[in-house]
Amino acid sequence: MPGIVSDGEVDRLMRDLEAEAEAGGYHLNPDRGFTRDLVRGLLANRERYGYISCPCRLASGDRDDDLDIICPCDYRDPDLADYGACYCALYVTADVESGKRAAAPVPERRPGPAERDRQKEERVAAGRAPGTLKYPVWRCRVCGYLCARNEPPETCPICRVSRDRFERFM
Amino acid sequence: MQRVPGVDRGRVVLYALSTCGWCARTKELLTDLGVGFSYVYVDLLAGEERDRVVREVERWNPRVSFPTVVIDEAKVIVGFREEEIREAVGARHSE
């Protein structure tokens, strides 16, 4: 929904995302026009839903249901590894960025609603299991960062996603 | 459903998201090929209409991902698969 987002806002978010990506060893798609449109889509989603859900996926509008597709999504890193780009192609690998390799079309990896519900229950059960460790270990579902402490960090120090993107790992 | 006029290559329907770059490329490709088609931005729909269209997409593509192109209620192409789309609308090579 172009129109409701100003060019200045798009520039600002694009700059921020680029700086964050490079600092974390990730890369934005070098096709500036394409990337700009995706960033505009992220901002349109923030306007509509209150969070930057994937521009190439249909969000429900319920943050809890959409948590796995808030950018960067839970599927970005496996898609980068397998295809050289994430699903919407906002992020690409270094060799795609430098033009050494073309990104392959990325099939949808996100499971359907029934499977997502099942996985969610599994995570809740894992979180309740009594541990024998001195501290629980939390895993960032976006980048895989692990930390052993009573609660996950407010923001992932590696990929900057929020606390609710962590799951109990051990 | 919006209609883009063009050559009749059967009933071509594009289910898309207004924010998605691959959906935009698909729409551009169909437009450039001069094919008549209908399209709908599912993310801009609300309430019952949205539920109805989502169920429609689900029939062709259970993952409900975008873009989904349906030709003559039979052939389904999921994603921006340029060659497949060209062939399906009968526009082989160098158009």
Describe the structure.
The complex is a heterodimer of chains A (170) and B (95). Chain A has two domains: 7-97, Ferredoxin Thioredoxin Reductase; 113-168, Rubrerythrin, domain 2 (Single Sheet), CATH 2.20.28. Chain A contains six helices and five strands, in the order αβαααβααβββ. In chain A, the strands form two sheets. In chain A, strands 4-3-5 form a three-stranded antiparallel β-sheet. A two-stranded antiparallel sheet of chain A has the order 1-2. In chain A, β3 (137-140) and β4 (146-148) form a beta hairpin. The radius of gyration of chain A is 17 Å and the shape is globular. Chain A is mainly alpha-helical and 170 residues long. The mean pLDDT of chain A is 93. Chain B is of the alpha+beta class. Chain B has three helices and five strands, in the order ββαβαββα. Chain B has helices spanning 21-32, 47-60, 82-88; strands at residues 2-4, 12-16, 37-41, 68-71, 75-78. The mean pLDDT of chain B is 93. The chains are: A mainly alpha (170), B alpha+beta (95). The A-B interface holds A 1-2, 34, 37-38, 40-42, 44-45, 55-59, 88-89, 105, 107-108, 110, 112 and B 17-24, 42-44, 54, 62-66, 78-81.
Largest sheet of chain B: 5 strands, mixed
Sequence stretches where pLDDT stays below 50 over 5 or more residues of chain B: none
What is the residue-averaged pLDDT of chain A?
A: 93
Query: What strand line-up does the widest sheet of chain A have?
Result: 4-3-5
Q: How many structurally independent domains of chain B?
A: 1
Beta-strand percentage range of chain B: 15-25%
Q: Helicity level of chain A, as a percent range?
A: 25-40%
